[in-house]
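User: Hi! I'm working on a homework problem where we have to compare a predicted structure to a textbook description. Could you give me the structure for the chain below?
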Amino acid sequence: MFFASSVLSVGRVQFSFQPLCRLLIVVAWASPARADDQREDGDGGRAEVLAHTSGGDLRGVVEAGGAVDSFKGIPYAEPPVGELRWRSPRPAKAWSGVRDASRFGRSAMQATRSTYLPDGPWTEEFLVQNEVGEDCLYLNVWAPRARSAAGRPVLVYFHGGGLVEGSGSVAVYDGTNLAAAGVVAVTINYRLGVFGFLSHPELSAESEHHASGNYGILDCVEALTWVRQNIAAFGGDPARVTIAGQSAGAWIVHVLTVSPLAKGLFARAVAFSGSSLARFDPNTRLPEAERQGQAFAQAAGGGDIADLRKLSAAELFARLPDRKTMRFGVVVDGFVLPDAISARLARGEQNDVPVLTGLTADDVGSPPRRVTRDWLVGQAESLFPGKVGRFLALYPTENDEVASRVAKVFTRDLGRAETFQWATSWAQAAASPVYTYYFDRAIPWPEHPEFGAFHTGDIPYFFRNLPVLQRPWTDADHEIAQIASSYWLNFIRSGDPNGDGLTRWRPFDPARAETMQLGQAGGMVPLMSAPRLRFLLAR
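Assistant: Happy to help. Predicted structure tokens:
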């Protein structure tokens, strides 16, 4: 959902975000849960339901007026603690008896907060509110109570958070309403920050793959493996799995679409607010990441990996340097990610599945609150050297008042152009279609209109979770949520967003340069004027 710094560099120019940048997801063995595996809670509370998985029995609860079975805090891997810190995840050990699955497991180790206000648009519904810790590899399942003989389509969702925060338990990701619409919805936790993405020569040396880092991505692969083995126990079809994620979760989706480790684990993919950030295409190579890991080890006390594994999670976390000077992220390690995503696509080495991707209007952020013409011209000179005249012809800026409006138009165009660029790369490499969207509805917020259609602001609409936020919703908002989620549900079911009663959503075609607009208006619209698009793509 979120970025990790407050400034985005594009070329040599920097655009400040609405601090969103600091914020920046056994078929053969398991017998499906049955409607008669249900009983009333002895205290007169919610009805309980059982599911039988390869690891053991689970006791969940029945929600949504009896329409949805909910199972939370399911371990999909062993706790990555002690000697298992910075190792590939191992399948969870089986348990005896019936495991309670009525509440979320711990979220991954991270800094937490109740809100980002007044600096950013993310209130508590977008943020982690439960306990955090290193023992965090849990997933959650919401399943339709009415089972389908053929198996229901499955969604596996990877949360955002800049790879340093977030959780599958975040309120806006609740899968109840998707399950009520017929989808088995899964959210997961994965390791974050130094726990999930540290590279180091010692870690590479002890790996049979001679690689380190990307443990958080390996967690996602392990969760998908668990889903393939067990989702039938919840009425899901392991052959109809859609992976989806937003922001950092979308980056994970992009990695999985080109990673050989994920081949065959999913049938379609959705990247919310990630393709517009393609400039963050992982290109850090293992040697560079290992040097950064050595620098961290030195800063953390100068010990070796064995010493760092002896530290508690809290002690290790406390020794992290300023995130502006040292961050841990996805690495081109030759194993999880053999090469940069763009390079894999250029060679046609992707996992060829239908893709849906898009962005919010203010995804790329907003210019500073005080924009002058001189400031905008200076930005243009840095970003488009030798082409300022052409820039000003396309984005006329007579005075300071106009400059503020033009700067916003430009940043919105930039996000759409980069989504276009990523979609073109996919369309040229893959036989499967890609569908793009542009979401421009701002969550109603009379106190903070300046945030606009902010990063992550489309997620409550797609998840049909508007009631999670106490906002002055209108009939238009509920209609937009119905339309947006209907397109998404259709895509999850079939790989095609189109369905009865919906405006036709045409697959992306670079020659048409159009996208599906969701929000203020609906339907296929030109991405932007052709001269502006050509100019932005040529930079």
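For your comparison, note the following. The longest helix spans residues 400-429. The first strand starts at residue 7 and ends at 10. Good luck with the assignment!
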